[in-house]
Write a structure and sequence with these properties.
The protein is an alpha+beta fold. The protein has one domain: Cathepsin B, Chain A. Helix content is 24%, strand content 30%. Strands 1, 2, 3, 4, 5, 6 and 7 form a 7-stranded antiparallel beta sheet that branches. Helix 1 packs across helix 2. It comes from Marinomonas arctica. This is Peptidase C39 domain-containing protein.
Length: 139
Amino acid sequence: MISPIIQEETTGCGIASVANVVGKSYAEMKALANSMGIYASDTSLWSDTQYVRHMLSRVGVEATENEILFESWGGLPDLALLAIKHHQEEGRDFWHWVVFKRVDGRDLVLDSASYLASNVRTDFNEMEPKWYIGLKTKP
């Protein structure tokens, strides 16, 4: 049974997504992020990939160097951060971070949004990812 971490702040999807990748609580990941100068209230957290990349690196997760255009669910690596709900405001890109995992051959998405009935998602046609960052956890 997978128990996704839920974001405790409206804008905390990046922090919660990294917590979901490494199995830390939201509070633990938020404390680490804050110690790095990363705050959920900073719009750059969901409009610039460098913040989550720094957090991932700090907790020992390797990330692909570039964002990769999403083509299909089957084409994703076994672990990835996905950018969904992509939109622009005043010419600036924004998105919602979620975690894609392939567990025992089953694809699922951990979505930290607090308003969802289930944070383990398989409604793939509804999410419309724009791109992803492939991830590898270190042993």
